[in-house]
């Protein structure tokens, strides 16, 4: 589900089935290709070992730092700064996404000029300092301001990392690696609560000391870890191929040329402002953004409110609420990988996506209405799997239906913007006054998942009909590209 299929008349070939040697062999007639497939394989393996470890660590810490407020909330933050009064908790969640959405593009503008290693390192140190500062707050307003700054600095990590990955890999090598990169966030989401629980047990100072409050240590330790990682990251993060110091001159030549040849062969054009507006008003782009909006809303709402639901809604203790958060994410990682393999192997999209959304609905209903706590907890497994798995699925779906490279970038940007709006929605639909069942938030999420099924199914049936008409010669070139077919 995480890969973009190869558009070909009469069928699609999954990028996951392409090897590096196969993509290299397609360039044998290029006069500039003066290396063997074995050399290219060796280069890619070497680059993999340098690109991903630190990048995944930094991204995992970013996901941990933006969501650790939920662990701190049930560890006493709600009482000590009166965060549970009215909509205060929702406000502190919401403000993060406002700055996060506004600064994604400016941050990606800066990374091209400053350089990936130094810019991403600066961002990590900066948001780590914000998290560290949260451990010393006395008022909820200060927490809200720090969350605004957190969103500002974290805004650059995702687009910046994708930019680095894309500069090193060919089109059909990139998607699988982006999936690995995304899994880092799910691992952080899965095991973060256990780490937070251990940190919340720390006590320091006298009986009246603020540092007897365990929630402060969640922010202090995790913020300090991020700062250290940010300071070390320039030693491990890499720049673009032409600046790589860990490659020989020949390997640098191969790394630069193999990507450049592919991009030239695709004849990527930079759309004018008018052309961009024309592509943006395509009704299909709006639906791709809606799909990602639903996925983002559901994922963020469950991430922020899962521990609250476990404690207030299911009656588990604080320790149980923290420890029970991890297993559903482990289950989601395994099932998401299986779903992605099935989707690529069978070359289907909408049945898997609709199935995952349906599983999310079933899980949410179990959380809401099951009587036995164990059954409600099983519902969390299903809900988290169904919601999380449709994040990469939705991104890939929009890319699959887009023929021109310049429009693919616009589709991706529109989808990510929809996800940012989903974060704002997800942080507001669960309100403190709705505890312990959180009926408005739960039913909003359920309704959105049902709409996701309807939109995805209807859009896919439209695409199938357009493919059939094109095959029968009753329809002009789809998406303005001769031979292109949708991949519903």
Would you kindly provide a written description of the structure presented here, covering whatever features stand out?
The protein is mainly α. The chain folds into two domains: 16-266, Growth Hormone, Chain: A (Up-down Bundle), CATH 1.20.1250.20; 271-488, Growth Hormone, Chain: A, CATH 1.20.1250.20. The chain is built from 18 helices and two strands. A two-stranded antiparallel ribbon has the order 1-2. Helix 12 (283-313) packs antiparallel against helix 16 (373-400) and helix 14 packs parallel to helix 16. The chain starts with 5 loop residues before the first strand and ends in a 17-residue tail after the last helix.
Query: How many β-strands, per DSSP?
Result: 2
How many helix segments? 18
- CATH superfamily of the largest domain, by name, is MFS general substrate transporter like domains
The SS-based structural class is: mainly alpha
Assembly category: single chain
Shape: globular
End-to-end separation: 12 Å
CATH fold-level name of the largest domain: Growth Hormone, Chain: A
Please tell me the CATH architecture of the largest domain by its name: Up-down Bundle
N-to-C series of helices and strands: EEHHHHHHHHHHHHHHHHHH
Biggest sheet, spatial arrangement of strands: 1-2
Percent of sequence in beta strands: under 5%
Pfam families: MFS_1
Subcellular location: Membrane
GO cellular component, one term: membrane
InterPro entries: MFS (IPR011701), MFS_dom (IPR020846), MFS_trans_sf (IPR036259)
């Amino acid at each position: 589900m995480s890969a973009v299929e190869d558009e070909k008349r009469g069928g699609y070939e999954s990028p996951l089935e392409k090897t590096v040697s196969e993509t290299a062999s397609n360039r044998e007639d290029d006069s500039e290709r003066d290396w063997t497939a074995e050399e290219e394989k060796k280069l890619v393996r070497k680059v993999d070992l340098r690109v991903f470890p630190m990048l995944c660590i930094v991204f995992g810490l970013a996901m941990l730092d933006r969501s650790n407020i939920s662990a701190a909330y049930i560890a006493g933050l709600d009482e000590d700064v009166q965060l549970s009064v009215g909509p205060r908790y929702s406000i502190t969640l919401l403000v993060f996404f406002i700055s996060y959405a506004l600064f994604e593009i400016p941050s990606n503008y800066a990374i091209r000029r400053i350089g990936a290693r130094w810019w991403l390192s600066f961002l990590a140190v900066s948001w780590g300092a914000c998290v560290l500062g949260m451990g010393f707050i006395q008022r909820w307003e200060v927490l809200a301001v720090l969350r605004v700054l957190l969103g500002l600095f974290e805004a650059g990590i995702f687009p910046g990392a994708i930019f680095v990955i894309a500069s090193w890999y060919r089109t059909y090598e990139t998607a699988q690696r982006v999936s690995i990169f995304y899994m880092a966030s799910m691992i952080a989401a899965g095991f973060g609560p256990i780490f937070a629980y251990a940190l919340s047990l720390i006590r320091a100072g006298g009986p009246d000391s603020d540092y007897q409050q365990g929630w402060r240590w969640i922010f202090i330790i995790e913020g300090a870890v991020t700062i250290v990682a940010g300071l070390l990251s320039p030693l491990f993060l890499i720049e673009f191929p032409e600046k790589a110091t860990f490659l020989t001159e020949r390997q640098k030549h191969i790394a630069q040329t193999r990507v450049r040849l592919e991009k030239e062969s695709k004849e990527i054009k930079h759309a004018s402002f008018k052309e961009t507006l024309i592509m943006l008003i395509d009704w299909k782009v709006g639906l791709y953004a809606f799909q990602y909006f639903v996925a983002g809303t559901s994922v963020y709402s469950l991430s922020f409110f899962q521990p609250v639901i476990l404690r207030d809604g299911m009656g588990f203790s604080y320790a149980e609420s923290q420890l029970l958060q991890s297993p559903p994410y482990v289950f989601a990682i395994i099932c998401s990988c299986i779903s992605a393999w099935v989707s690529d192997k069978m070359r289907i999209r909408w049945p898997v996506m609709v199935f995952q959304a349906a599983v999310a609905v079933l899980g949410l209903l179990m959380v809401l209405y099951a009587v036995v706590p164990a059954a409600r907890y099983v519902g969390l497994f299903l809900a988290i799997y169904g919601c999380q798995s449709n994040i990469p699925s939705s991104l890939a779906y929009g890319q699959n239906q887009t023929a021109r490279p310049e429009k693919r970038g616009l589709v991706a940007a529109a989808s990510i913007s929809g996800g940012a709006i989903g974060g704002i929605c997800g942080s507001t639909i669960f309100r403190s006054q709705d505890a312990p069942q959180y009926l408005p938030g739960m039913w909003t999420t359920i309704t959105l998942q049902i709409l996701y099924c309807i939109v995805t199914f209807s859009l896919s049936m439209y695409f199938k009909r357009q493919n059939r008409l094109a095959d029968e010669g009753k329809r002009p070139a789809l998406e303005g590209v001769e031979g292109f077919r949708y991949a519903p």
